[in-house]
Amino acid sequence: MADYDRNPSPYLQQSVSDNPYRLLEWTVFMDVLGPVTGKRILDLACGDGRLTRILAHGGAAEVLGLDVSEEMLDRARAQNAEGEAEAFPDKVTYAEVSADDATFELTPPVDIVTAMYLFHYAQSVVELDRMGEMIGRNLGPGGRFVTYTINPDYDFSSAPDDMEARIGFRYRIIDPPAHALVIKDFEVPIWQWSRAQHEEALRKGGLTDIRWHPLRFPPEQLHHVVGWAWYLDNPSCIVLSAAKPG
Fold this sequence. Notes:
alpha/beta, 3-stranded antiparallel sheet, globular
């Protein structure tokens, strides 16, 4: 998105902070994803490549990251070149492709498709469906899809006034389902689609075994639960997974 080309610094700083939200963001996602050793993976809306690098370090055979922001892709390539080239030479590549591209198709398809924040960038149900179709088109039989996305049940109106101070970001209600993610002077539009709309998009892509996974802290970090009850009672994000039959 062009928003990430203009001023991505606040978003990137927030994404690597040591806020306990990082634990919620990654714990369930990685548990649902499971082992990636030897897998070929397509990472949609890859941004600056933080997930692509985790997947490569986790033993993935190949990782292709797609994004529409040239600025974010440049940052991903630069970070790989600076510190990761020896760790996974030629394992990770990037391309400027939209996640709703109707023609993009990998041959052969991949074993896993991932996305840390994707579906809420769809500006219409038609665009959401195209994302589901692209996922299914590029996922091989028996493959899995895992994403971290806006919770369809999240009540934007109940967010505390000091949410950004507590968690590093906040939301602005525009005209539901349209909202905005706000981090300091960075703002990007997002859309909140229903569970049924998400599931229908995945079914149109030929995916089944669609599951929603609530966020939680890892067992060794349960001391955070009391202080984060306000968020866990009304979480803005959730993990969604599906599979390609075969």
